[in-house]
Amino acid sequence: MKILAIDTSTVMATCAVLDEDNLLGEFSLNQNFGHSENLVPMVKTLLDNLSLKVSDIDLYGVAVGPGSFTGLRIGIATVKAFAHVYNKPIVGISTLEGLAFNLSHRGIIVPMIDARRNRVYTGIYKWENGYLNNIEEDTVMEIDQLLEHLGENYNNIMVNGNGINIHREKIKDKLGDKVEFAPNIHNTCRAASIGELALLKKDHGKLSNYFTLVPEYLRESQAQRDYKKKERDN
Predict the structure, then answer these.
(1) How confident is the model at residue 224 (pLDDT cuts 50, 70, 90)?
(2) What is the tens place of the pLDDT at every residue in 12-48?
(3) Is residue 227 very low, low, confident or very high in pLDDT (cuts 50, 70, 90)?
(4) Which residues pair with 92 in a beta bridge?
(5) In this structure, is residue 55 part of a structural domain?
(6) Residues 2, 198 contacting (CB under 8 angstroms)
(7) 128 & 150 share domain
(8) Residue 156 sits in a domain of what CATH number?
(9) Positive or negative, the Cα torsion across 32, 33, 36, 41?
(10) Which stretches does DSSP call E strand in 105-200?
(11) What one-character DSSP code corresponds to residue 163?
């Protein structure tokens, strides 16, 4: 089974082709959100170099967010069009889950994507019995609140994503020896991770519908809204 995966949720546009568990090729460009002009040529170049056509793809995987509103729409619209035309299955994958999947850390994995105004998109993940589990739901929150929560509840933390470049010193100060920073190579979105996750979810019957698949921009969790309401009331 051949999988085409795409992630355009950040400035890094990335596409990959896998054959089951084997990565056949991957193409990534940091292009400051020029995805509308470059994504389809990237995919074509990758497929041409593998002597494949879009019609040879059996499964599509795409990052659905959080991330850039425009970037997400471009990537999702492209994959939905391919899946629709060739009537092939599609799986939407959380960008944060894809980032966490880059790491094999045995402790807690906390991907962070910059959400501006001192906020990050984030989630808390952990490998358990060979599977990456989301142990706290993906959300958007202020970096100070996230670091306070992590410091109070977790040890052996590894962080990754473009958010750590912006908040590195604050993360060090707040978490100290509880935290490790992922190597730079693991801080960008990778279509290969999206593709492998898409295959895993497909095997567990977790397919998306190419008519209804939409970006997931995220909002604050109920716990955060309750926390802020409590602070206002006080």
Answers:
(1) low
(2) 999 999 999 899 999 999 877 678 888 999 999 999 9
(3) low
(4) 62
(5) yes
(6) no
(7) yes
(8) 3.30.420.40
(9) positive
(10) 108-116, 119-128, 131-142, 157-160, 179-181
(11) H
Q: Would you say 191 and 7 are in contact if contact means Cβ atoms under 8 Å apart? A: yes
Closest by CA position to 116, among listed 163, 73, 153: 163
* Predicted confidence (pLDDT) at residue 131 exceeds the cutoff of 90: yes
Residues 69 and 40 both lie in one domain: yes
The CB density around residue 206, as the number of other CB atoms within 10 Å, is 13
β-sheet bridge partners, residue 110: 159
| Position 164 pLDDT exceeds 90 | yes
Domain count along the chain = 2
Q: Tokens 């056509």 map to which residue?
A: 53
What angle (nearest 5°) sits at the alpha carbon of residue 57, between those of residues 46 and 188? 50
- In a domain? residue 117: yes
163 near 112, Cβ under 8 Å? yes
Are 7 and 89 in the same domain?
A: yes
Regarding whether 110 and 58 lie in a shared domain, the answer is no
Full residue range of the structural domain in which residue 109 is found: 103-186
Q: How far apart are CA 173 and CA 158, in angstroms?
A: 15
- Give the 3-state secondary structure percentages of the chain, helix then strand then coil, rounded to 5: 40, 30, 25
